[in-house]
Automatic annotation (TrEMBL):
It comes from Butyricicoccus intestinisimiae. Residues 6-60 form the HTH cro/C1-type domain. This is Helix-turn-helix domain-containing protein. Transmembrane segments: none annotated. Keywords: DNA-binding. Pfam families: HTH_31 (PF13560).
Amino acid sequence: MYFQRLRDLREDRDLRQQDIAELLHTSQTVYSRYERGFQTIPVSHLLTLADFYQTSTDYLLGRTNIRTPYPKK
């Protein structure tokens, strides 16, 4: 359930959906759909969020519970 991770990360930083929507150059409505699991998040948005939250895409997608990003080569 990746969408819960998106919400948790956003709320941990006291950000609004509108703040993240602006980062992704999308509307608040679309971002809200990502967080509720009603719309699949595009890879480009997933990568932007991983960089923004300094985590891995695997963490965002719920494939791992390790929050730190992978080491860069």
